[in-house]
């Protein structure tokens, strides 16, 4: 083993042990500092060339200066560039189609392969990400929630974050299953707790239950306030069909993220089929032939099921990507449930995680 790799490996495991023994916020800071240090020291250059594995990264939004409370899953442009530069220097960025072909043909992808994907179809994918990736000649995929692109609608999760954190209300009461649930919004910490509880409680509900809960939240704010607050966060705005067509013409892999960006598994079978077929048909109408790759909305086990997997396969998709936090082990993977690593706003943690997973 090269001396540099041995030194970085020993240091990384000591830091991980310290991070694991610390409270979660402290542990995250330790991993973030370690990852930034390893990126600057070019530690990833000395990772071993292990065959039959790859990492699919899942990005969401990018903006110049994210609001850390509201845009906690949005990457700053500066950190996006830093991460892409490390990927360009130390890894091999390949397209999702190439990885799928390697798996189907029982051959290994290039060592240290990375696949870049974007979920949710935000306009920043076209306005910011496309140029940065083209500059580095990196292939990538973007997955669109077709109905939101069609209507210009915002995702309900993003509205929850914006309204709770930046709305004028300091206290709200929502009525869930016949009981009143009160949320104190007087401090940043309590607002963050409210956002987490609302999203996690509603995310995997059948749509017939989730929608009334969200509509009740919207009813607590005026239309003018909602419109004003949305305008303050362009990172959550969806791209247009024209932007999607331009990405496709530029060679970007443009695929489906469902129709309405809802968890599929909790829905009725006919509802699931509609979400998938209507999204496919709308993409076909607006951009023509599109990617044979699908991205599960939310991408966790609660959003997936054998029935959804069978239907996606029946519709002719070559693969489906999830948000299960793992690398792809090509010799023992399910093409209809490929794992991805979420790229958080803290690029140091991402770099530290890549180091550990590619050792």
Concise structural overview:
By secondary structure, the protein is α/β, with parallel strands linked by helices.
Give the low-confidence spans: none
Radius of gyration: 21 Å
Overall spatial form:
globular
Fill in the CATH topology of the largest domain: TIM Barrel
CATH architecture verdict of the largest domain: Alpha-Beta Barrel
Number of helices: 14
Count of β-strands: 13
Biggest sheet features: 7 strands, mixed
What is the CATH C-level name of the largest domain?
Alpha Beta
Write down the overall mean pLDDT.
95
Q: How far apart are the first and last residues' alpha carbons, in Å?
A: 11 Å
Q: Give the SSE order as H and E letters.
A: HHEEEHEHEHEHHEEHHHHEHEHEEEH
Helix proportion: 40-55%
What is the number of independent domains?
2
**CATH fourth-tier homologous superfamily of the largest domain:** Glycoside hydrolase/deacetylase
- Percent of residues in β-strands: 5-15%
Describe this structure in words.
The chain has helices at 3-20, 24-40, 77-90, 96-104, 123-135, 146-151, 156-166, 188-202, 207-219, 223-231, 241-249, 269-287, 306-314, 347-358; strands spanning 53-59, 61-63, 74-76, 92-93, 113-118, 141-144, 171-176, 179-184, 253-256, 293-295, 319-321, 328-329, 341-342. The chain is α/β, with parallel strands linked by helices and 359 residues long. It has 2 domains: 3-152 and 238-358, Glycoside hydrolase/deacetylase (TIM Barrel), CATH 3.20.20.370; 156-234, no CATH class. The strands form 4 sheets. Strands 1, 4, 5, 6, 9, 12 and 13 form a 7-stranded mixed sheet that branches. A two-stranded parallel sheet has the order 2-3. A two-stranded antiparallel sheet has the order 7-8. Helix 1 packs antiparallel against helix 2 (24-40) and helix 7 runs antiparallel to helix 8 (188-202). It starts with a helix and ends with a helix. The model has no long low-confidence stretch (mean pLDDT 95).
């Amino acid at each position: 083993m090269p001396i540099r790799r041995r030194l970085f490996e020993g240091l990384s495991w000591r830091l991980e042990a310290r991070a694991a023994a610390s409270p979660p916020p402290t542990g995250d800071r330790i991993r973030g500092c370690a990852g930034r240090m390893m990126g600057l020291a070019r530690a990833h250059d000395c990772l071993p060339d292990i065959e039959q594995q790859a990492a699919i990264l899942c990005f969401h939004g990018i903006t110049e200066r994210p609001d850390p409370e509201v845009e906690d899953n949005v990457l700053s442009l500066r950190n996006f560039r830093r991460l892409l530069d490390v990927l360009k220097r130390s890894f091999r960025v390949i397209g999702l189609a190439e990885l799928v072909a390697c798996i189907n043909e029982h051959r290994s992808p290039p060592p240290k392969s990375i696949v870049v994907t974007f979920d949710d179809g935000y306009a920043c994918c076209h306005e910011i990400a496309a140029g940065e990736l083209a500059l580095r000649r990196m292939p990538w995929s973007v997955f669109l929630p077709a109905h939101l692109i069609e209507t210009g609608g915002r995702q309900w999760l993003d509205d929850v974050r914006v309204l709770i954190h930046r709305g004028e209300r300091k206290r709200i009461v929502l009525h869930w299953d016949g009981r009143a649930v009160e949320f104190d919004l007087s401090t940043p910490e309590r607002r963050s707790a409210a956002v987490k509880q609302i999203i996690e409680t509603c995310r995997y509900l059948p749509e017939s239950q989730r929608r009334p809960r969200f509509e009740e939240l919207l009813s607590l704010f005026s239309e003018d306030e909602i419109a004003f607050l949305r305008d303050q966060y362009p990172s959550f705005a969806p791209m247009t069909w024209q932007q999607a067509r331009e990405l496709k013409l530029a060679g970007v892999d443009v695929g489906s993220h469902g129709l309405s960006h809802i968890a599929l598994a909790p829905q009725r079978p006919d509802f699931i089929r509609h979400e998938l077929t209507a999204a496919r048909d709308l993409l076909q109408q607006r951009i023509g032939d599109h990617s044979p790759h699908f991205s599960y909305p939310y991408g966790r086990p609660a959003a997936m099921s054998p029935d959804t997997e069978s239907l996606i396969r029946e519709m002719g998709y070559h693969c489906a990507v999830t948000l299960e936090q793992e690398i792809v082990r090509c010799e023992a993977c399910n093409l209809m449930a490929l794992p991805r690593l979420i790229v958080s706003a803290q690029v140091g943690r991402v770099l530290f995680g890549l180091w550990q997973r590619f050792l």
